[in-house]
Amino acid sequence: MLGFPNAKINLGLFITEKRPDGFHNLQSCFYPVGWTDVLEIIPAPAFSFTSSGLPIPGDAHTNLCVRAYQLLERDFKLPPVQMHLHKLVPIGAGLGGGSADAAFALRLLNEQFSLALTTYQLEEYARQLGSDCAFFVENKPVYCLEKGDAFESINVDLTGYHIVLIYPNLAISTAEAYANIRPRQPEKPLRDYLQNPIETWRTNVHNDFEDSLFPKYPILQEIKQQFYRMGAVYASMSGSGSTIYGIFDAPPAIPNQFTSYNVWLGKL
Ligand SMILES: C[C@](O)(CO)[C@H](O)COP(=O)(O)OP(=O)(O)OC[C@H]1O[C@@H](n2ccc(N)nc2=O)[C@H](O)[C@@H]1O
Ligand SMILES: Nc1ncnc2c1ncn2[C@@H]1O[C@H](COP(=O)(O)OP(=O)(O)OP(=O)(O)O)[C@@H](O)[C@H]1O
């Protein structure tokens, strides 16, 4: 069985407080984008996991796809499988790539072996693998609260807009990015700003990670500014970085200065 675990972007990211468990409460809108990995899971005589494409740091035994299989194996008698992941979505990028792989592994195993898990049950498993992971079960635009794993519906539809994502070959660890954050309570909930037209977002739909990461990595701010010079209706960093995205009315020409970076262009 074949799946295409996709990236997400954050439309705004307010980090509101540090929690007693060490994690942070946040407000964000997660929005799926079409930059994908490829994940194949087929029944096999013995369990195996292999990957190709972008190198994934860490031992293959700890890959999130393997951890998804092991999590379900605790509760179900799963037959052995051969899993292959072709990695295309950059890592340490704020795009939730690893979380998407894990969620798609859960979804594919559920289907392949007719486990009959509901969306709610799949989300419960996904939460154990990462804060971003539960989003990829339903994989539709959603307003996120708490650790990024509690959802409310929101009326944000960017269908028809063009998007450019630039990963400037700079991996940022999520844990490290959170460690340098000073949480703040916003004047108004992010949801209120997102309900206004996208043309107004530039002034108040903010990613709080930009405040600590832009001074440290000036290239990130340069890309964002370049997107606005190119006519973006909205531009921002995604998640804990380092990917910067720009949303456009029409597909833009990519300046030469970006050709050495990992660039993805598509439609929302
Ligand atoms: C930055 C975001 O991508 C926003 O969408 C997510 O909050 C990150 O989610 P994620 O990559 O799934 O993160 P996890 O694998 O759950 O956690 C990695 C580390 O990030 C920190 N972390 C993560 C999520 C959160 N709400 N608060 C945190 O403080 C913790 O130090 C944690 O040990
Ligand atoms: N399938 C996978 N894809 C990517 N990283 C994985 C995967 N499985 C395990 N990992 C581990 O997770 C780490 C990346 O996590 P991290 O959360 O920083 O990046 P991300 O997947 O780009 O997501 P985000 O930055 O949005 O949180 C890697 O260094 C790697 O050790």
TrEMBL record:
Output the superkingdom of the source species. Answer: Bacteria
Q: Which reaction does it catalyse?
A: 4-CDP-2-C-methyl-D-erythritol + ATP = 4-CDP-2-C-methyl-D-erythritol 2-phosphate + ADP + H(+)
User: For binding ATP, which residues are annotated in this chain's numbering?
Assistant: 90-100
Signal peptide interval: none
What sections of the protein cross the membrane? none
GO biological process, alphabetically ordered:
isopentenyl diphosphate biosynthetic process, methylerythritol 4-phosphate pathway; terpenoid biosynthetic process
| Enzyme Commission number(s) of this protein | 2.7.1.148
Q: Which Pfam families match?
A: GHMP_kinases_C (PF08544), GHMP_kinases_N (PF00288)
Does the entry feature the keyword NAD, yes or no?
no
Catalytic residues (positions):
8, 132
Q: Name one GO molecular function term.
A: 4-(cytidine 5'-diphospho)-2-C-methyl-D-erythritol kinase activity
Q: Where is the GHMP kinase C-terminal domain?
A: 199-250
The record's NCBIfam families line, in alphabetical order, gives:
ispE (TIGR00154)
**Could you tell me what this protein does?**
Catalyzes the phosphorylation of the position 2 hydroxy group of 4-diphosphocytidyl-2C-methyl-D-erythritol.
The UniProt entry, under HAMAP family, shows:
IspE (MF_00061)
Indicate what this protein is called per its UniProt record.
4-diphosphocytidyl-2-C-methyl-D-erythritol kinase
Q: Which gene encodes it?
A: ispE
